[in-house]
Design brief:
By secondary structure, this protein is mostly helical. It contains 14 helices and 2 strands, in the order H-H-E-H-H-H-H-H-H-H-E-H-H-H-H-H. Helix 5 packs antiparallel against helix 6 and helix 5 crosses helix 10. The chain is globular, with a radius of gyration of 23 Å. The structure holds protoporphyrin IX containing FE.
């Protein structure tokens, strides 16, 4: 008998490991018509693992101090063995994560899987999206380049327009009147500790909700009927479905491989696309570089702020849009999930995507 089997028998006799594995792998059945969009959750879990490992490795050499931060990142890029690889994986990876997050959210929107009984899954997921954007924002400052400094100055300045407490909010975010050591300190603490801890907790809540409710049956094909919202708890079973392992895991693995390949393709062949020239100059509070733009996923917000006559109005519209999205399952309450039978909401989503793209392109070229 091999050592592996002996160890498995030992653990099984004490903890019933095989039963847990069977329940969650081979006997965990998914809907027969499950599609590729459902792999995006596993893609996100993998990409976050990559961010955590690369982030920990960067921490070994990064110094969160305004005198040293820029130089420490240069050292990682030029002197530390494979430092350039780890740094590029982390910086490019953040962009791929946001892309996968948006796609995951879109699939949930179009298939109506945010509806009862999955409202809480949506809320936890949406908070994860906001937190991910927060991690990107705080991470952006850490290299202490001109880009970091001025992008953070502009981003924090927009809170100034909040009536009465605007100035206090800006001071709170920056730790002082200007972006400086105190800003770097708090952004560093949030980026490497505060946000990741909160994030891990939310991922657990999200996965707990997904597992308890059961994966939703895709709203396509004959025989799909809207189900009334439950009044007592019921796990959605898929008798005669396909086993999660090995069938769906193989599909998950293929799509994960696609996203990881995309990440490495950018890292090796186009690493510059996420680094404008201002990312290669150390921060200088006295020189404003021309044409500082936020990352692509914040361009819509940047352009919205510019479009309104008052920045406060621009900010208010964004807060309203985000709140509406967060509360979406409580606003769109019909049990119908087939996209063709929800023309109002599906049109709103298509227009929303078109607006997001139009504002982003406009923001990029403005
Ligand atoms: C770090 C971020 C996230 C991770 C790791 C994650 C992970 C997952 C996983 C593993 C699943 C099950 C398989 C699947 O349907 O893909 C899932 C389902 C789901 N996610 Fe996420 N997710 C994240 C963010 C989001 C966001 C931003 C939203 C929406 C705003 C969201 C809403 C949902 C919903 C409603 C389901 C249930 C789908 C169904 O049963 O049909 N998630 N998520």
């Amino acid at each position: 008998m091999g050592l592996g089997k002996k160890l498995a028998d030992y653990l099984d006799a004490r903890l019933g490991i095989r039963e847990i594995l069977e329940q969650n792998l081979t006997r965990y059945l998914l809907p027969r018509n499950i599609n590729t969009w459902y792999t995006l959750g596993s893609v996100l879990l993998t990409l976050f693992a990559v961010q955590i490992v690369s982030g920990i490795l960067l921490l070994i050499y990064y110094v969160p101090n305004t005198d040293e931060a820029f130089r420490s990142v240069q050292r990682i890029m030029n002197e530390v063995p494979f430092g350039w690889l780890i740094r590029n994986i982390h910086a490019v990876g953040a962009n791929i994560v946001i892309l996968a997050l948006l796609l995951h959210m879109l699939s949930v929107l179009f298939m109506g899987s945010y509806k009862a009984p999955r409202e809480l899954t949506w809320v936890a997921g949406f908070l994860l999206l906001l937190l991910s954007l927060g991690m990107c924002l705080t991470g952006y400052l850490l290299p202490w380049s001109q880009l970091s400094f001025w992008a953070t100055t502009v981003a924090t300045k927009s809170s100034e327009e909040i009536p009465l407490i605007g100035d206090a909010v800006v001071r709170f975010l920056r730790g002082g009147a200007m972006v400086g050591q105190l800003t770097l300190g708090r952004f560093f603490a949030l980026h490497v500790m505060g946000f990741p801890l909160f994030f891990a907790m939310l991922v657990l809540i999200h996965l707990f909700c997904v597992r308890r409710a059961g994966i939703s049956r895709p709203p396509f094909g004959p025989g799909w009927q809207p189900a009334e919202p439950p009044t007592v708890f019921r796990h959605e079973e898929h008798h005669g479905g396909i086993p999660f392992f090995p069938h769906y895991v193989a599909k998950d693995a293929a799509i994960i491989a696609f996203f990881v390949s995309l990440l490495f393709w950018v890292v090796f062949f186009a690493p510059g696309i996420f680094f404008p020239p201002a990312a290669f100059e150390p921060a200088d509070p006295f020189v404003t570089p021309p044409g500082i733009k936020p990352e692509w996923y914040f361009l819509w917000s940047y352009q919205t702020l510019k479009l309104f006559p008052s920045e406060f109005l621009g900010l208010a519209v964004q807060v309203l849009a985000v709140t509406l999205l967060l509360l979406l399952p409580f606003l769109d309450r019909s049990p119908e999930r087939r996209p063709a039978r929800r023309p109002l909401f599906v049109t709103a989503y298509v227009l929303g995507i078109a607006l997001f793209i139009a504002l982003s392109v406009w923001g990029h070229y403005s």
